[in-house]
Amino acid sequence: MRRATRSLDNGAARASLFILVMTMAMQQKLIALQPDAADARLATALEALDHARKAVGEIQRSLLPASLPEIPGFEMSPYYRASQHASGDYYDVVPLIDNQWGFVMADVSGHGIPAAVIMTVMRTLIHAELPSNRDKSTGKFLEHVNSVMSETYLRDDRFVTVWAAVLNPVSRRLTYASAGHNPPRLLRGGSVFALDAAGGFPLGIDPAATYEDVGITLETGDLLVIYTDGITEAMRSGSDDDLELFGTERLDQVLGESSYERTCDCTERVRTAIAKFTGDAAPTDDQTMLVLRASQ
Description:
By secondary structure, this protein is of the alpha+beta class. The protein has 8 helices and 12 strands. The strands form 3 sheets. Strands 1-12-9-6-7 form a 5-stranded antiparallel beta sheet. Strands 2-3-4-5-8 form a 5-stranded antiparallel beta sheet.
């Protein structure tokens, strides 16, 4: 754990400190304004704060993969849309030992700058620990990350849901564990079902929480959709001003129409369906999705 904690002191961790310092400075400028301050001064301060938020968003997005790696026998495509300038969603595909690959999808509770800071720390810890995870147990990996994050970073009722997996591209064996994250959807033979055999508390709820590994062998043509709840919880106004969610049933229907499509076509089909459902309204929650297909 000491090595993992020390590993946070790198560029990504310093980025999180920059986020905090910049945001606090902007907030102090607003607080310092007196009630009788000129509207022009207030407008200038608000503009500076908005600029800082945009800068935070740019830093946070730079920590997401610039491009996805090429894995023999597999095809991948991501979709990402933040609800604010900064996001608490995170996805990654990390090279491991023995030519295997680690997959991570995480969702920090809340939105905006506080969630982005925690996501930055999470990303740093994952890159420090996952590649050296020699026992390839995703459950043990989540236990370690939970212990470190709970000790220092997840306070004031903050938590993180995470789905993590290790893929052996030769055997197509996918071993996964979940820390309270919504189960991925698997399209196989025209039917969609949830990879929900693994479960556990989100990170930050119980520092001593344990997580179990579950394995599945992917078959040719299988389409795996890993996502955050911003996808299925996209909202529109229903009758009597009730809010209606996009939901897993609609997601499954869209996926069922994507059996033979490329992964990029699948992500575009989901994006279009959500936009049509919501009237192309700005999302109220971050939306992130990673689609993986066993192509050979």
